[in-house]
Amino acid sequence: MSSKKLAMYVCVAWMMAIIGSSFATTCPPDFGGRCVCGQANYNGKERYLVNCTNTHFNDAAMLEKLPIQTEVVIFTGNNVTSMPWNVFGKMNDYPYLEVIDMTNNNIQEIKGKTYHHVKNVKTLILNHNQLNITGDKTHPRIFSNFVNLESLHLTNAFSESVDSKEYLVALEQIFVGSNLTKLAKVHLEQNEIWSIKNPNIFCTLPSLMDIQLGDNNISDISFNVGCIHNLRFIDLRNNKIHSLSNNTLSKFEDLPNQGLGVKLDLMGNPFICDCQIADLLNWLRTTKVDVLEKESYTCYDGLPAANADELLYNVHQIQCAFAPKQEYQGTTVLLGILLFLMISLILIIGYMNFTSVRAGTVALWEKVVHRGQYTHILSKPEEQEVHV
Ligand SMILES: *[C@@H]1O[C@H](CO)[C@@H](O)[C@H](O)[C@H]1NC(C)=O
Ligand SMILES: *[C@@H]1O[C@H](CO)[C@@H](O)[C@H](O)[C@H]1NC(C)=O
Ligand SMILES: *[C@@H]1O[C@H](CO)[C@@H](O)[C@H](O)[C@H]1NC(C)=O
Ligand SMILES: *[C@@H]1O[C@H](CO)[C@@H](O)[C@H](O)[C@H]1NC(C)=O
Ligand SMILES: *[C@@H]1O[C@H](CO)[C@@H](O)[C@H](O)[C@H]1NC(C)=O
Ligand SMILES: *[C@@H]1O[C@H](CO)[C@@H](O)[C@H](O)[C@H]1NC(C)=O
Questions:
Q1: Quick one: 331 and 352 in the same domain?
Q2: Are residues 354 and 298 in the same domain?
Q3: Has residue 385 been placed in a domain?
Q4: Which position has the higher pLDDT, 361 or 78?
Q5: Are residue 162 and residue 83 in the same domain, yes or no?
Q6: Which residues are in the LRRCT domain (predicted)?
Q7: In this structure, are 163 and 42 located in the same domain?
Q8: 147 CB near ligand 4 (under 6 Å)
Q9: Whose Cα sits closest to atom 6 in ligand 6?
Q10: Mean of the per-residue pLDDT values for the chain?
Q11: Is 42 in the pocket of ligand 1 (CB under 6 A)?
């Protein structure tokens, strides 16, 4: 390459840069002058940003005209109940698009064909929406074009009128159907989750590291963790955990190195410091899992009552309200009840039949002793039964 040619290339590139920057703050006409497009600081980096914040759009049609060089699109504070097919248009690829933030748009439905041309997106934020992904609104391949997605934000994303158990099942179908092989972080805070009935919900995300479940109403770690081979962090802050059983805690032993290097955050849970918490106390002192700030966890209540507001680590005496609910005792109690019921049943049947049995025996005896007196034998039990 001659130096003349090189100079020309440099010159052209420089001119294009100038032209580019002179258009930088102007969005395409479809954006109605409500958004800001151009280089801006996003999370500490200069990025080409399209920023439509509190723009009160009632549809997302303008996003079809998104500038090709866009790296971050912020579309929040609008009212788009149903996301259309091909929200970023059918034509263009967006090779630089890395972040899509669609927080707070009153989104109720995302179609299976909404997100195309998103193959380089690493972060998708759908916080504070009214998503309904259950029933005929389940589109398992909804995120299937996000082949490089690393971080999925679904904080307070779901409609409160759909039971969390149902949408978590639908979410598992989405995880399976969308093949999110690179997804490392899932945010599910503030979703009124009480319990997770599908224990393998996170097992189909091979790169998963962080599970954010803070500010829910969860009382147990009911999902599998042993299947999450890259697990790094489980956030369960501010939930409704009273205590955790050996059964739950032993799951961490299935992790590589028994959970060494895994962080667990249980801050702000209402621990009940009665005898049920013995396993958790024991585990906290011995586990390899890094339980964040465990020295400052406090008892919300307890037995003896003096345990309330005490630090978990300072609790030395714990009592049981009733018999401790240990498993083998449960079985013993159950067996006892069954035995009692059986004996009672035998006694009742025995009593009900006693008269006729006795009559029968007597009759048999009489039959043996006084052969031939059949009328007497047959009439006697009937007479007696009438009087019972
Ligand atoms: C986007 O715009 C809103 C208001 O117009 C502003 O408050 C916010 O800081 C902008 N975001 C970024 C990342 O520049
Ligand atoms: C949002 O849009 C829906 C229809 O798409 C409409 O019924 C509702 O009133 C709108 N809400 C606001 C706050 O504008
Ligand atoms: C969610 O979608 C399902 C299926 O379309 C529907 O039956 C249910 O009523 C919806 N729930 C809400 C709260 O919109
Ligand atoms: C899932 O994605 C991986 C790599 O991203 C690919 O190799 C694999 O074939 C995909 N599986 C399915 C079922 O699409
Ligand atoms: C879940 O817990 C929060 C905080 O403790 C509480 O305000 C909320 O009412 C609970 N959710 C439901 C659905 O009861
Ligand atoms: C839980 O495990 C610990 C340590 O292995 C053991 O001492 C304790 O008895 C177990 N608790 C129950 C209820 O089985």
A1: yes
A2: no
A3: no
A4: 78
A5: yes
A6: 269-321
A7: yes
A8: yes
A9: 279
A10: 86
A11: yes
The pLDDT tens digits of the residues spanning 132-182 come to 999 888 899 999 999 999 999 999 999 999 999 999 999 999 999 999 999
Q: Is 11 exposed, middle or buried (0-12, 13-18, 19+ CB in 10 A)?
A: exposed
- Give the pLDDT of residue 228: 95
What is the number of the ligand 6 atom nearest to the C-alpha of 246? 1
Per the structure, the complete domain to which residue 330 belongs is given by 326-368
Measured in Å, residue 83 CA sits from the centre of ligand 5 at 29
> Which ligand ends up closest to the CA of 250?
6
Task: Return left, alpha or beta for 259; rule: phi > 0 is left, psi -120 to 50 is alpha, else beta.
Answer: left
Question: Which of 179, 204, 205 for mutating ligand 4's site (highest number of atoms within 8 Å of CB)?
Answer: 179
Q: Taking CB atoms and a 6 Å cutoff, what residues make up the pocket around ligand 3?
A: 132, 134-137, 159, 161-162
CA distance linking residue 242 with residue 312, whole number of Å: 12
**237-246, 297-306, 374-383: range with lowest mean pLDDT:** 374-383
Residue 373 lies inside a defined structural domain of this protein: no
Q: Is 53 in the pocket of ligand 1 (CB under 6 A)?
A: yes
* Tokens of residue 144, six digits: 């299937």
Confidence band (pLDDT; 50, 70, 90) for 326?
A: low
**Cα 171 to ligand 5 centre (Å):** 22
Residue 160 Cβ contacting ligand 5 at under 6 Å: no
The pLDDT score that the predictor gives to residue 115 is: 95
**Number of compact structural domains in the chain:** 2
The residue-averaged pLDDT of 204-227 equals 97
Average pLDDT over residues 266-289: 95
Q: Round to whole Å and give the CA distance between 244 and 317.
A: 18
